[in-house]
Specification:
Elements: H1 2-24, H2 31-50, H3 59-89, H4 93-102, H5 116-127, H6 131-144
Helix pairs in contact: 3-4, 3-6, 5-6
Length: 146
């Protein structure tokens, strides 16, 4: 029995040394720094591949490209917000857009914190939500602003 305990102890000691040596070989790079480097490299490569900017581009062209990218990102965020809201109510995304339109709610307003209260009140009233569902809806719409 003592022999088994010695073998386990020796095995644990060897494993600890292997882990320690592996950690030393990382040259001080933490998981966070390795992860950030990978993400930064991926973003840089994406920008290089998708970039239409040349050294001869005028400031106006650069502004238009930036505006287009900003609008595209905003539309993606709005679509994601509408889809999450649709999932909350158990309906499709297109139906949710139609419901919002019939209630005179601009889908972009889902991303505007100043419109949150009005949107929540309108949806609670329209769907007859109880207090718990209303609170869950408020939390969901608050998540859109993050």
């Amino acid at each position: 029995m003592n022999n088994c305990a010695d073998i386990i102890s020796t095995s644990n000691s060897i494993n600890k040394k292997k882990i320690s040596n592996a950690a030393k070989n990382l040259k001080g790079d933490s998981f966070g720094s390795i992860f950030n480097k990978i993400v930064t490299d991926k973003i840089a490569n994406s920008i290089k591949q998708n970039s239409t900017i040349t050294s001869n581009s005028s400031p106006q062209e650069l502004g238009e490209d930036f505006r287009k990218n900003l609008e595209e990102e905003m539309n993606q965020r709005v679509d994601a917000a509408v889809e999450r809201l649709a999932n909350f109510f158990g309906v499709g995304k297109h139906l949710m857009k139609a419901i919002l339109q019939s209630l005179h709610i601009d889908p972009k307003g889902l991303l505007d914190p100043s419109q949150k209260k009005d949107i929540v009140e309108t949806l609670v009233k329209k769907f007859g939500l109880d207090k718990n569902k209303a609170e869950a809806l408020t939390n969901l719409i608050t998540d859109f602003h993050k």
